[in-house]
Amino acid sequence: MNEKYARITREGLWNNNVVFAQMLALCPTLAVTSSATNGLGMGLASTAVLLLSNIIISSVRQFVSAEVRIPVYIVLIATLVTLVDMSLNAWAHELYKVLGLFIALIVVNCAILGRAEAFASKNSVADAALDGLMMGIGFTLSLVVIGGVREVFGSGTLFANAHLLLGPAFSFLEMTIVPEYKGFLLMILPPGGFMVVGLLLAAKRVLDQRRAAREVVAVPEAAAS
Amino acid sequence: MNLEQLRGKLSYQGILLGGVALLTSAALAFASRATEADIKAAEAADLKQSLAQVLPGEYENDLLKDTVTLPGSRGDVLVYRGRRAGKVEAVVYRVIGNGYAGNIVCVMGVSREGKILGVRVISHKETPGLGDKIEPAKAKWIFDFDGKFLGDPPADKWAVKKDGGVFDQFAGATITPRGVVNAVKGGLEFFEGNKTQLLDEAGGVK
Fold it and tell me: CA of B204 to nearest chain A CA: how many angstroms apart?
């Protein structure tokens, strides 16, 4: 049982990462990762929606017939996103002013539909919830890394304006990595996003290949763990 | 008949789709009603807050309720008025400038005498790192307008330095500040052109 949960966790965080393995959700990824803080905001909002949508879709999976599943999922997800959007706007307006842009973008995040189709519709509610959470965290981490790289090279800071997103208590996150930095505009603009995603993707592949090569040598140990 | 067989039927699928659509629309309608008032209140508070930035000081009336709409050079302009002792002491309205990448929407506050009380950029699509110095969070540039009026600087000096004016441009971005300066100048001309209506003195001295 634990083995299964560990596998779902590994899949979400690394092996089947939304951005770097499934290559899904690249549109919102490139659009919002001009800074680490924006990446974090988008990631957290997506995680919440992913978790909820996986739970809902997994719990109705017996009633949905295969022929009409896609429209049903889309309607459910779109409703969920709209509900989150409205309630944040009404009851957490300060947060909404920061996250509002991201929430509208989540509707076009194919990762949500992707997980509904590939996982939640075939697994139990608990498994689907864990999968949604882990996929969301993996997505958040990817966005923060991409945003962080672009921000450090582009404007010389890291987590700038984090207090707007997380509250004043988190202003310690805000760092100036390179003081008096004149900025490297390319990294902030969309082409920089493509470059960083490409380079990070290549780096992940190299890491995976090295690990695979090591595991071939150490097969007995891997089986024991 | 069990669920397995039922799921394959065409009528079941139609009913399922209809049912899901009905349920979700009901949920949305309910949520929309539940949140409407709170969203309106939050947005009004937001507007008030942004008005207060360009309109320092206390006014006796509710700015959001004392409005007048006048034709401007780029469509109708909604003007909010702040009063003291019944007299309009200051007005706030939107002006729109042509930026490097689309419109720059600003809100400006003007006193009874035609002096600028403050200018803020509400929305823009300028290049991050270059043109976005018009935001107060990024640079102090936008405060240069405070206290200025048509005459100080004189009309032909209401431009960026590159065009022979008095306002700074940014390194690598001239079009953005030029757009804002022109918009603010246009806003002051709008004030001068519509003074009697803006100050609510059409019937003479109140």
Answer: 44
B38 contacts A91? CB cut-off 8 A: yes
The total of structural domains in chain A comes to 1
Backbone conformation region of residue A163, classed left if phi is above 0, alpha if psi is from -120 to 50, else beta:
alpha
* Percent of chain A predicted with pLDDT > 70: 96
Contact between B163 and B136 (Cβ < 8 Å)? no
B116, B184 in Cβ contact below 8 A? yes
> With bands split at pLDDT 50, 70 and 90, how would you rate the model's confidence at A219?
low
Chain B residues whose beta carbon lies within 8 Å of the beta carbon of residue A79: 24, 27-28
Give residue A19's domain range: 2-224
pLDDT of residue A224 exceeding 60, the answer is no
Tell me the residues of B at the A interface, defined by beta carbons under 8 Å apart. 3, 7-8, 12-13, 16-17, 20-21, 24, 27-28, 31-32, 34-35, 38-39, 42, 45-46, 127-130, 137
Q: Which residue has better confidence, A128 or A35? A: A128
Residues of chain B with pLDDT below 50 are: 204-206
Taking the C-alpha atoms of residue B204 and residue B206, their distance in angstroms, rounded to an integer, is 6
- Give the torsion sign (CA, B148, B154, B155, B160): negative
Distance CA B101, CA B59 (A): 36
Residue with tokens 């505009």: A185
* Complex confidence, ipTM: 0.72
- How close B8 gets to chain A, by Cα (Å)? 7
How big, in percent rounded to 5, are the helix, strand and coil portions of chain A?
80, 0, 20
Measured CA to CA in angstroms, residue A164 lies from A76, A85, B6 at distances of 31, 18, 51
